[in-house]
From TrEMBL, chain A:
SUPFAM superfamilies: Stabilizer of iron transporter SufD
UniProt lineage: Bacteria, Pseudomonadati, Pseudomonadota, Alphaproteobacteria, Sphingomonadales
Name of the protein in question: Fe-S cluster assembly protein SufB
InterPro entries linked to this entry: Fe-S_cluster_assembly_SufBD, SUF_FeS_clus_asmbl_SufB, SUF_FeS_clus_asmbl_SufBD_core, SUF_FeS_clus_asmbl_SufBD_sf, SufBD_N
Pfam families tied to this protein: SUFBD_core, SufBD_N
PANTHER family found in the cross-reference section: FES CLUSTER ASSEMBLY PROTEIN SUF, UPF0051 PROTEIN ABCI8, CHLOROPLASTIC-RELATED
Family, per entry: Belongs to the iron-sulfur cluster assembly SufBD family.
Record organism: Sphingomonas metalli
Record domain SUF system FeS cluster assembly SufBD N-terminal: where: 160-215
GO annotation, biological process: iron-sulfur cluster assembly
Domain SUF system FeS cluster assembly SufBD core: from-to ranges: 224-466
Automatic annotation (TrEMBL), chain B:
Signal peptide location: none
Domain SUF system FeS cluster assembly SufBD core: 115-328
Gene Ontology biological process terms, A to Z: iron-sulfur cluster assembly
Name of the protein described by the UniProt record: Fe-S cluster assembly protein SufD
Organism ancestry: Bacteria, Pseudomonadati, Pseudomonadota, Alphaproteobacteria, Sphingomonadales
Lineage: superkingdom: Bacteria
Pfam families: SUFBD_core
InterPro entries in alphabetical order: Fe-S_cluster_assembly_SufBD, SUF_FeS_clus_asmbl_SufBD_core, SUF_FeS_clus_asmbl_SufBD_sf
Length: 495, 357
């Protein structure tokens, strides 16, 4: 039993705090992947005919594709038939109020420290702040447990503002027109192997629509948790910000410790219309496997934003500390004139983790601008790659891009790689790229230690300083979590 | 047809390559022979004339250069240039006069390998010129012993067709290799090189690719630091006009124990028209923790303020553009140590600017 192993792991190493599994009854789809699986998922979710057809089309396409192998990753072959594609907590998924939520799941989320209850505001804010007073910072949460969204909070308040914040399966039922209009528009079904797979079997995820001129009154957040054994999680997130809208969205992930590798192949699509702004922050902390590289999540994610409107803006911030293998490139297609794309990333790899991550900025519109700041930190025997593309189309006048990628190496058994592609087809573009690779200098370390810090604390401090430009971009509560995560991920990497 | 053996552009390292350009060059009809006399520089030493991939013994003055079969390479371009070629082998402490090689192509495909082996403390200079039209494919193997020094300057001034160069160099302890390329002709090109640097070795590999019309030139260079204390500089400049494409892909690899490596890359592209394309890929692959590796890459047009300033001082716009472009290219050509060679290369670059601007 893997649970036993998990306990053993937990006993020898305290490093991955979120490595517990929750014992709840679950409904599984039959193991393996076939058209029947796709039909099963679709039927389970009570989806309309068009949705099923869409999934089947993707599935048939997926069968004709070959798994890509161009990244600087060592991915053992994945047996797609040896996994469950759908796992649902037996407790009824749609519930009237949070009190009806399976107490086991609720305990899980409590252990994870997710502010799932509406009253749980930031510690320094009175829990019953008067409505009408300066609105305290609050976070609406959509929690996804294995394949199913189990709870979405603050729904009423969001509804008053006109913001639609639903799990994607609910959205398919309640707002079919909107979903149909945008689903697969940014990441088409045939985009890549894992996106196609996701299109066929996506189980749940989040749908956000912010109507014209609305500034979303609170941060929206989704928390993903893979619990069941041998399951893959295939969530799909679709965020549409209509003209002049603003939304900030946070995403967090954890999984129990298991010996097997589990696949997480999500698709995230963002659409920003005229003057809209989307801020998308991720703290990714999937189980990274143990020191010897056994187990862990394969995190193969397709994230892309379409800045369709004039003056639109999309900002990606990511802190990647987890996963055995990470393979993702949050991208911006800057189609609208004057649109802005930003990408801030910290990727930490330790032990035998591998990360191949970066961004693509596709400049199509006039005077579009993009900023890329990527910080890679490698320790142990890990490999950390920044791979990015900045492309300027012939029509894109006056493009500006600034790219900075810095790598920090802790130890002499790890690797740091930088693979930036720059393709420019318009002379008015100004593209700048800088990169450095370094280690923590003895002087810095000596100084910090002479002030009374032990070596690990000193390294943590220096690493946090190195990643500061990115951490600053995170919403406050995430920034705190991210700093702690950086420390934990690097534990045992020095000395 | 040998072109079909080349990897497709779907492969990472060949993404910006131009197999159609090579195929077209290989199919070019035979043209008029070119007179090599004007292409030799006023330098003492060996003068080798290569006509369509064959060394013309009667027209050449070999000096220390010998003709013999060169061991083959397994690279897709390199392995096509197998068989007899020219060789320069220098014994310990030997210093040779510059070796000049002029490659003349008159249509069709031609291949030729070469080998340069320098023993401890030997020093050599090699200047190569490519002229004519057709597909010229070359393979060069370089072996440098302890503290050996090789300076190479290569200019591509073919009127049409394609020049593909595959180079594999191995630098011994403290050896130094400085190679400068100038692509100022009308032919397409691919400069494909792998350098392996030993302990404390110094490698400088760079140049300027000037493209116009429908031309496509690219470099795909990897410098691998296998031992500690190595130093490498890759300085490339690309100027693209009309509908041409210039691609620069340069990689620094640092092996696990190659501590104290200092790798530097500077890739800069200048676009003269909006229809032109510049692709850059400054790549780092680092496995050692105590290294200094930095790369800078920029693409853009001429600085409008600098242009305005020069015009305000009475320099016509066209002339100002030429001066600024010339300065941009000069960075790369200034690395050539031999004054005669440097001036000849600068003159070729100027001629190109004159023609295009």
């Amino acid at each position: 039993m893997a649970t036993k192993n998990a306990e053993a792991h937990a006993a020898v190493s305290k490093k991955y705090e979120w490595g517990f599994a929750t014992d709840i009854e679950q409904d599984f789809a039959p193991k393996g992947l076939s058209e029947d699986t796709v039909r099963y998922i679709s039927a389970k979710k009570g989806e309309p005919e068009w949705m099923l057809d869409w999934r089947l089309k993707a599935f048939r396409l997926w069968q004709t594709l070959e798994a890509p192998d161009w990244a600087k990753l060592n991915v053992p072959p994945i047996d797609y038939q040896d996994a469950y594609y759908y796992a649902e907590p037996k407790a009824k998924a749609t519930i009237a109020s949070l009190d009806e939520l399976d107490p086991e799941i609720r305990r899980t989320y409590e252990k994870l420290g997710i502010p799932i209850e509406e009253q749980k505001l930031l510690a320094n804010v009175a829990p019953d702040a008067e409505a009408g007073a300066t609105p305290p910072r609050r976070v609406a949460v959509d929690a996804v447990f294995d394949s199913v969204s189990v709870a979405t909070t603050f729904r009423e308040e969001l509804k008053r503002a006109g913001v639609i914040f639903l799990s994607i399966s609910e959205a398919v039922r309640e707002y079919p027109e909107l979903v149909r209009k945008w689903l697969g528009k940014v990441v088409p079904q045939r985009d890549n192997y894992f996106a196609t797979l996701n299109s066929a079997v996506f189980s749940d995820g989040t749908f956000v629509y912010v109507p014209e001129g609305v500034r979303c009154p609170m941060e929206l957040s989704t928390y993903f948790r893979i619990n069941a054994e041998n399951t893959g999680q295939f969530e799909r997130t679709l965020i549409v910000a209509d003209k002049g809208a603003y939304v900030s969205y946070l995403e967090g992930c954890t999984a129990p410790m298991r010996d097997e590798n589990q696949l997480h192949a999500a698709v995230v699509e963002l659409v920003a219309l005229d003057d809209a702004e989307i801020k998308y922050s991720t703290v990714q902390n999937w189980y990274p496997g143990d020191e010897n590289g056994v187990g862990g999540i394969y995190n193969f994610v397709t994230k892309r934003a379409l800045c369709q409107g004039r003056n639109s803006k999309v900002s990606w911030t990511q802190v990647e500390t987890g996963s055995a293998i990470t393979w993702k490139y949050p991208s911006c297609v800057l189609a609208g004139d004057e649109s802005v794309g930003e990408f801030y990333s910290v990727a930490v790899t330790n032990n035998r983790q591998q990360a191949d991550t970066g961004t693509k900025m596709i400049h199509l519109g006039k005077n579009t601008r993009s900023t890329i700041v990527s910080k890679g930190i490698s320790a142990g025997r890990s490999d950390n790659t920044y791979r990015g593309l900045v492309r300027v189309a012939p029509t894109a006048e006056g493009v500006r891009n600034f790219t900075q990628c810095d790598s920090l190496l802790l130890g002499d058994q790890c690797g740091a790689h930088t693979v930036p592609y720059i393709e420019v087809r318009n002379p008015s573009a100004q593209i700048e790229h800088e990169a450095t690779t370094s280690k923590i200098s003895e002087d810095q370390l000596f100084y910090a230690m002479s002030r009374g810090l032990d070596q690990e604390a000193a390294v943590r401090l220096i690493v946090n300083g190195f990643a500061r430009e990115v951490l600053q971009q995170l919403p406050m509560e995430f920034a705190v979590e991210a700093q702690k995560l950086l420390g934990i991920s690097l534990e045992g990497s020095v000395g | 047809m040998s072109v079909l053996e080349l990897p497709s552009t779907r492969e990472e390292g060949w993404r910006w390559s131009d197999p159609e350009g090579i195929a077209a060059a290989a199919a070019m009809p035979a043209g008029a022979p070119v007179d090599p006399a004007a292409l030799f520089l006023d330098l003492p030493g060996a003068r080798i004339v290569v006509r369509d991939g064959v060394v013309d013994r009667d027209a050449s003055d070999l000096h220390r250069v010998t003709l013999a079969p060169v061991p083959a390479s397994d690279h897709p371009l390199g392995r096509q240039a197998a068989g007899p070629g020219w060789m320069l082998h220098l014994a310990e402490d030997a210093v040779a006069h510059p070796v000049q090689v002029v490659h003349l192509a008159s249509g069709g495909a031609n291949h030729l390998p070469a080998e340069i082996v320098l023993a401890e403390d030997a020093a050599a200079q090699v200047v190569e010129t490519y002229a004519g039209a057709g597909w010229s494919n070359r393979f060069l193997r370089v072996r440098l012993g302890r503290a050996a020094r090789l300076m190479r300057a290569v200019r591509l001034v073919q009127d049409g067709g394609f020049v593909s160069l595959r180079e594999e160099a191995h630098l011994g302890t403290g050896a130094s290799l400085v190679t400068t390329f100038l692509g100022a002709g009308a032919a397409g090109s691919r400069i494909d090189a792998t350098l392996v640097a030993g302990e404390g070795a110094f490698a400088e590999f760079g140049g300027a690719l000037l493209t116009a019309g429908e031309q496509r030139q690219e470099c795909a260079v990897a410098v691998r630091h296998a031992e500690p204390n190595g130093q490498s500089h890759q300085l490339w400049r690309a100027v693209a006009a009309d509908r041409s494409t210039a691609s620069l892909a340069a990689r620094v690899e640092v092996a696990r124990h190659a501590q104290k490596t200092d790798g530097e890359q500077s890739l800069r592209g200048l676009l003269l028209q909006r229809t032109a394309t510049v692709n850059l890929k400054p790549e780092l692959e680092i496995f050692a923790d105590d290294v200094k590796c930095a790369h800078g890459a920029t693409v853009g047009e001429l600085d409008q303020r600098a242009l305005f300033y020069m015009q305000s001082r009475g320099i016509p716009r066209g002339r100002a553009q030429a001066i600024l472009t010339r300065a941009f290219v000069a960075d790369a050509l200034d690395r050539i140590g031999n004054e005669t060679v440097r001036e000849a290369f600068a003159a070729d670059a100027d001629a190109w600017l004159e023609r295009v601007l």
